[in-house]
């Protein structure tokens, strides 16, 4: 797999000039397109990615302090959780498969496939990507998604009885606002990674990391390794002090400030 992955990266890179000013962004796009071609990214995932890119551009394509604050609160919440679950969709599988698996192992979280545009083929394709990235178990595929989230209609409400159904904390990204709201109504803490601080998901979540999953996942792993040694009390204190509204406001102020200072 690693060899195939390397040669894939190599072929993408060979098409993009070394000195292209937006090389990283183009490589990320290629990963999403590849996911589409391999059947695990939905066509709508391309549109979602474009919306994310726009917000990332506005934020300077760097992790800002408000995201770091949210990441630390997320790590404290995940370390305190009894049943943490990482909910995975096509875009996430395309962008951060290894990091999903690594974070899952660090915090002892289940990994569950959950799709807005659910088909068994896509579920299985995502499971394959995650297993190739090192996952031992992937929930929410086929018959495993036999439980339902109340208040949601359509295929999106199907979840694993061993995963999201019993989770106390769910980490998700590129999620729809309705489902985020339904999970919060079920009493779960939702940690959302979402570049758009105005989305319903960003506003409904318990903790919103306004950052790109590409940068947020490695940082989550980094802070888990640091904060693992913290006492329960210290972790609880971080969670208690965290204010998601203040973080969302800070992200909007940052964008406004940045735009007001740009001279063309
Ligand atoms: P909502 O239903 O929550 O209001 P939406 O319908 O506007 O959201 P979707 O298109 O369903 O949004 O989901 C995509 C979301 O994910 C967008 O808010 C987009 O900014 C964000 N997004 C896209 N790519 C990334 C990425 N790489 N990292 C983090 N967030 C991303
Ligand atoms: Mg939506």
Give a quick set of tags describing it.
264 residues, Rossmann fold, 5-stranded parallel β-sheet, two-stranded antiparallel ribbon, acid-amino acid ligase activity, ligase, coenzyme a biosynthesis, nucleotide-binding
H-E order: HHHHEHHEHEEEHEHEHHH
Low-confidence stretches: none
Count every helix, treating DSSP H or I runs of 4 or more residues as helices.
Answer: 12
For the sheet with most strands, the description reads: 5 strands, parallel
Mean pLDDT: 93
| Strand segment tally | 7
Radius of gyration: 18 Å
Give the cofactors and ligands. adenosine-5'-triphosphate, magnesium ion
- Assigned CATH superfamily: Phosphopantoate/pantothenate synthetase
- Determine the CATH topology: Rossmann fold
Structural class: alpha/beta
CATH top level is Alpha Beta
Terminus-to-terminus distance: 46 Å
Shape: globular
Proportion of helical residues: 55-70%
CATH architecture: 3-Layer(aba) Sandwich
In what order do the strands lie side by side in the largest sheet? 2-1-5-6-7
How many domains comprise the coordinates?
1
